[in-house]
Design goal:
339 residues; alpha/beta; TIM Barrel; two-stranded antiparallel sheet; 45% helix; binds 1,3-dihydroxyacetonephosphate
């Protein structure tokens, strides 16, 4: 058993504080370049620093955000005034975390399927990240739905990598966020999304058990069970909540303290409405159900900012607003008129 149990339990309890969630700001260099380009900002070191400094210095962010996931570059960056960016977070009572996977590549022999890389020398990288102040980590596996996919082999390979990563994190006292994302690209139905997500989560928890991962000291970051983006039959928030909770109750042990959903390309308002529906039901769930949104928290911020220093306050207000609405959704207290 890890000598860091107490430290990890403390991290988990801070991150799962009632009404709080995670801001995923861990876009890799390629992804942040795409996001910045969409608002006509060139992705220089300084632009990325300025943008993340804006996010993390948002007044009162700590009232709604308990953790932020960073990319390697950001964990090492300092503000224009020379303060480590992580200090902006800890000053607000926010726990810094780090994305440790190294992206996805094609899985040989399985057309259309992917495997996440980064296990080699992960132990050494984790040890450095811990020195730099990270207290939790994230690894994302990607599962696509299509003709004949996902295959059981691709699901198993990704589950195995997630479990090996989680065990390595716990060995060093970092809380692993286990992220198996079933993509919403495609025209599959809600029922297909449910079948695939159930199979994936089943396999992931089997692998976590095999690798002796302590469930009490991890967090799950799943996709919601929703129809494919181009499915003609879209679902109501209540249908999404019912399908997602059914799937989670069948596969996620009650020992897991928290489930922080990704947004995966849903609009910001839909991601909030779905989370609210999951927390608004009469049945009490065994885990804290919260968010770990990237795009659904940041899209309005980027739109407001557009790289202009004079838009900083407006952009920070946009982040605070979205964080506050998702915070309400964690408590089942969100209504669309709050938009
Ligand atoms: P989205 O909420 O934009 O899906 O991002 C969350 C994330 O961290 C993906 O790995």
């Amino acid at each position: 058993m890890s000598p860091f149990m107490e430290a990890m339990e403390k991290t988990v309890s801070e991150i799962t504080a009632p009404g709080k969630g995670i801001l995923a700001a861990d876009e890799s260099t390629g992804t942040i370049e795409k996001r910045l380009k969409a608002v006509q900002v060139a992705s220089t070191d300084d632009a990325r620093r300025d943008y993340r400094e804006l996010l993390f210095s948002t007044p009162e962010l700590g009232a709604h955000i308990s953790g932020v996931i960073l990319f390697d570059e950001t964990l090492r960056q300092r503000t224009t005034a020379g303060i480590p960016l992580t200090q902006l977070l800890t000053a607000q009572g926010i726990v810094p975390g780090i994305k440790v996977d190294q992206g996805t590549v094609a899985l040989p022999g399985f057309p259309g399927e992917k495997i996440t890389q980064g296990l080699d020398s992960l132990g050494q990288r984790l040890s450095e990240y811990k020195q730099l102040g990270a207290r939790f980590a994230k690894w994302r596996a990607v599962i696509s739905i299509g003709a004949g996919i996902p295959t059981p082999a691709a699901i198993s390979a990704n589950a195995h990598a997630l479990a090996r990563y989680a065990a390595l994190c716990q060995e060093q006292g970092l809380v692993p966020i286990v992220e198996p994302e079933v993509l919403m690209d495609g025209d599959h139905t809600l029922a297909t999304s449910a079948l695939v997500t159930e199979a994936v989560l089943h396999r992931v928890f089997h692998a976590l058990h095999q690798q002796r991962v302590v469930l009490e000291c991890m967090l799950l970051k799943p996709s919601m069970v929703i129809p494919g983006a181009s499915c003609p039959n879209q679902a109501t928030p209540q249908e999404v909540a019912r399908a997602t909770l059914t799937c989670l109750r069948r596969t996620v042990p009650a020992a897991v303290p928290g489930i922080n959903f990704l947004s995966g390309g849903q609009s910001d308002a839909m991601a909030t409405a779905h989370l609210n529906a999951m927390n608004g039901g009469a049945v009490k769930q065994p885990w804290v159900l919260s968010f770990s949104y990237g795009r659904a928290l940041q899209a309005p911020v980027l739109q407001a900012w557009r790289g202009e220093p004079r838009n900083k306050v407006k952009a920070q207000q946009a982040l605070h607003h979205r964080a506050r609405l998702n915070s309400a959704a964690c408590l089942g207290q969100y209504t669309p008129d709050m938009e």
